[in-house]
Task: inverse folding
């Protein structure tokens, strides 16, 4: 099985998409960080001031920046699956490993590893931005306390699990464009609305991104009121449940299908 | 070396909805021989091969490699190599990386990738992305992929498609070498008999999903008996007169008669006596292509 996982990673790292996605993900995280840093301490109109750059609250908020990267990991997961159908390399893959369940498992494991890698990359970028910012502002850097480890773990776990969502969705849909567009619409439109509009948050908190937000929730009053979220443990369970469902979908749709 | 049936297909059937792509087909391929799997487009060749390779699940029957279903092979690439469509490569991956990915999955040393590239004459293009390859180069790379694990059985689906005459000549030599020197069992499909005629030892012919002939090339040419072919709108009227002369008459349809056991002059005399208008009267040559067309023509 380790050979198969290595083969899947090799597939990913011998084409260009992974580093394009990595760059876009870092760019996205960077923009989020820039906004967070730029607006720190700013007084919203009529509202309370956002926490200043030296505060723990600022650091907590900044550390969540990497969470937005999960969509890129999901797209990578989608491509890991749909690319095989698009270029018909699935034939070669199944010829060398006719027990298809093993191929799916190897993809899921490889996806998890890549998700972790992306999550860690986002954290490193965050560290590079947050630590100097806090020091310059004369604050005390919090890394192992103040809820920061939980947020870091949340960012990495979310990233890893979104890779599985992508692989499952890709196995189900198989058409690369349709799967990618579907994922983007879901994350940026459907989930954004469900988690942002208070009346819909009863549903929204059970969506993948709603559950993911509960892992990295911080008490920052942005003037919109605190969002209605699950407790972190429940959010984690919901995310893992989604990942299992997507993994199951990936297996069931791949094992029996005729490759013509 | 153990003599065993390398490929054995027994009563294989597969339907796609209402289309019976493969209908109760049986044949076998022995080690050290090249078998041509022939039939017009849509005959069911690809479906048969994909069933054999575990890519398509058969509705009935069995397809075995070395006595086992493909999906039960522990190290499939070390036993079976396959060349299917020409396009199954990621265009952004280099030829070498393509092979290395497979080496990793199959537990083969990465050095096999370079050896295989050398063997199919792609060593110079090893580090080029496959997206820039010609069809012929892709076919070579596919062959390199198929032979990575030094398999004892080689299955090729229309490998000559897209090859130029020199490429086809190279392919023939490559297959002959593998079969006759290395004892590999080769099954190669084609819709053009002439493409494989000079290479194959045996032929299996399929049309509309059904097997229509299996045997050696010599058997196909019918060692000798060459019928007289008559075409006439009034062919029916000729039959009694010919049979009175002791001829055996086949009627493949469309006003065509194939007359065995008498010479062309006897047939001509019957035409004269019966005052039938004929548009063709010729002693058939043992033209493989004609036999192939005849065997596989639409009913
Ligand atoms: N995935 C599929 N779905 C529906 N029909 C198919 C599929 N694959 C093949 N067929 C049909 O099965 C028949 C045999 O096709 P195929 O095995 O590709 O023939 P060949 O390789 O001899 O040209 C054809 O009628 C073809 O249209
Ligand atoms: Mg075909």
Result:
């Amino acid at each position: 099985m380790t050979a198969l996982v290595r083969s899947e990673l090799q597939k990913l790292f011998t084409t260009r998409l992974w580093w394009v996605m990595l760059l876009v993900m870092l760019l996205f995280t960077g923009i989020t960080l820039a906004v967070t840093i730029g607006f720190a301490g700013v007084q919203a109109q009529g509202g309370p001031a956002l926490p200043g750059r030296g505060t723990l609250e600022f650091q907590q908020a900044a550390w969540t920046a990497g969470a937005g990267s999960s969509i890129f990991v999901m797209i990578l997961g989608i491509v890991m699956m749909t690319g095989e159908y698009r270029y018909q390399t699935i034939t070669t893959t199944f010829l060398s490993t006719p027990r298809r369940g093993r191929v799916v498992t190897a993809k899921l494991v490889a996806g998890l590893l890549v998700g972790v890698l992306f999550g860690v990359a986002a954290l490193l970028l965050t560290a590079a931005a947050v630590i100097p910012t806090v020091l310059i502002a004369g604050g005390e850097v919090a890394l192992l306390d103040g809820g920061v480890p939980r947020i870091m773990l949340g960012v990495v776990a979310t990233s890893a699990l979104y890779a599985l969502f992508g692989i499952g969705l890709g196995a189900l849909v198989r058409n690369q464009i349709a799967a990618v567009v579907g994922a983007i619409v879901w994350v940026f439109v459907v989930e954004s609305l469900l988690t942002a509009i208070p009346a819909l948050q009863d549903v929204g908190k059970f969506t993948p991104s709603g559950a993911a937000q509960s892992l990295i929730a911080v008490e920052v009053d942005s003037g919109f009121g605190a969002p209605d979220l699950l407790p972190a443990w429940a959010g984690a369970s919901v995310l893992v449940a989604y990942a299992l469902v997507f993994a199951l979908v990936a297996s069931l749709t791949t094992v029996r299908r005729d490759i013509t | 070396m153990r003599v065993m049936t390398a490929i054995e297909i027994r009563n294989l059937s597969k339907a796609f909805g209402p289309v019976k792509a493969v209908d109760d087909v049986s044949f076998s391929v022995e080690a050290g021989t090249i078998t041509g799997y022939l039939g017009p487009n849509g005959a069911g060749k690809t479906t048969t091969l994909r069933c054999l390779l575990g890519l398509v699940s058969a509705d009935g029957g069995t397809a075995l490699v070395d006595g086992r279903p493909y999906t039960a092979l522990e190290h499939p690439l070390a036993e079976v190599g396959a060349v299917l469509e020409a396009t199954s490569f990621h265009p952004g991956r280099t030829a070498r990386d393509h092979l290395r990915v497979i080496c990793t999955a199959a537990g083969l040393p990465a050095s096999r990738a370079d050896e295989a590239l050398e063997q199919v004459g792609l060593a110079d293009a090893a580090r080029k992305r496959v997206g820039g390859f010609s069809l012929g180069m892709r076919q070579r790379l596919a062959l390199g992929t198929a032979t990575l694990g030094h398999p004892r059985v080689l299955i090729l689906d229309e490998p000559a498609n897209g090859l130029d005459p020199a490429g086809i000549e190279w392919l023939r030599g490559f297959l002959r070498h593998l079969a006759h020197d290395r004892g590999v069992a080769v099954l190669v499909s084609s819709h053009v008999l002439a493409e494989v005629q000079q290479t194959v030892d045996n032929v299996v012919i399929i049309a509309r999903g059904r097997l229509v002939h299996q045997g050696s090339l010599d058997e196909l040419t019918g060692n000798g008996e060459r019928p007289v072919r008559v075409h006439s709108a009034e062919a029916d009227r000729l039959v009694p007169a010919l049979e009175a002369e002791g001829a055996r008459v086949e009627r493949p349809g469309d006003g065509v008669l194939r007359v065995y056991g008498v010479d062309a002059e006897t047939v001509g005399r019957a035409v004269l006596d019966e005052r039938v208008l004929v548009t063709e009267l010729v002693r058939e040559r043992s033209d493989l292509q004609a036999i192939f067309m005849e065997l596989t023509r639409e009913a």
About this structure: Chain A has a mean pLDDT of 88. Residues B 45-46, 157-158 surround magnesium ion (ligand 2) (CB under 6 Å). Residues 2-37+53-256 of chain A form one domain.
